[in-house]
Specification:
Two copies of one chain form a homodimer. Chain A has one helix at 7-12, and strands at 5-6, 21-26, 29-39, 50-63, 66-70, 74-78, 84-99. By secondary structure, chain A is mainly β. In chain A, strands 2, 3, 4, 5, 6 and 7 form a six-stranded antiparallel β-sheet that branches. Chain A is globular and about 40 Å long. The A-B interface holds A 2-8, 23-27, 29, 31, 48-49, 51, 53, 55, 63, 65-71, 73-77, 95, 97, 99 and B 2-8, 23-27, 29, 31, 48-49, 51, 53, 55, 63, 65-71, 73-77, 95, 97, 99.
Chain lengths: 117, 117
């Protein structure tokens, strides 16, 4: 497919939160957009770093030793094994990258439903 | 390090073109920002997909079977093995992701100098 992937357009296509949509594949990873609002849960990935880029709004990325606050155009990579909790101040739009098939809490039993779209 | 990575700030720190700066590491990849102006060269990566997200300006991503035009907030992944030539209309700012150590033309002998910063 030789068409630009417009992240805003992809985000306009849905309204539910904490349900990432895959928009592209890259080296065994899913490139995803997601809407977040309020707190997610504390979680840890044992096998992968966790990539966050804020497209809209403000995200507090709580770590056990401090909080990283991200606005639009700001990013952070949570290293694997580091527990974290994303907390969205109002509605936040994010670009996420994770290995294809990763449950969104690092644990299948607690993962939210992931819809591909 | 628990500090937000501000992509605009990183881009303000240099002015040379086609010289990506690594701003983060993610699962064995370099996350990089780069300024582009005018045409780069035709090149192919045999071992990796090539991730482009436009932060500012307009990029024509020429493929042998068509051109993908990307504006701010638009992205594209060139699959591995697919020849391509980025052509920047004026100054363009990009987020790139590539496996750490990848020469920026897919070929060490023709790669531009990469500065880490």
């Amino acid at each position: 497919m030789t068409t630009a992937i417009d992240l805003s357009e992809k985000l306009k296509a849905f309204s539910d939160t904490f349900a990432p949509r895959t928009v592209a594949q890259f080296n065994g990873h899913d490139v995803m957009v997601v809407k977040a609002e309020g707190p997610f849960i504390w979680h840890t990935y044992d096998d992968t770093d966790d990539f966050f880029l804020v497209l809209k709004g403000t995200l507090d990325l709580e770590l056990r030793d401090g909080t990283v606050t991200l606005g639009p155009g700001q990013m952070f990579v949570v290293p694997k094994g580091v527990e974290h909790r994303p907390v969205a101040r109002g509605e936040v739009h994010l670009l996420l990258i994770e290995p294809t098939g990763t449950p969104n809490t690092g644990d299948v039993s607690t993962a939210s439903r992931r819809q591909l779209g």
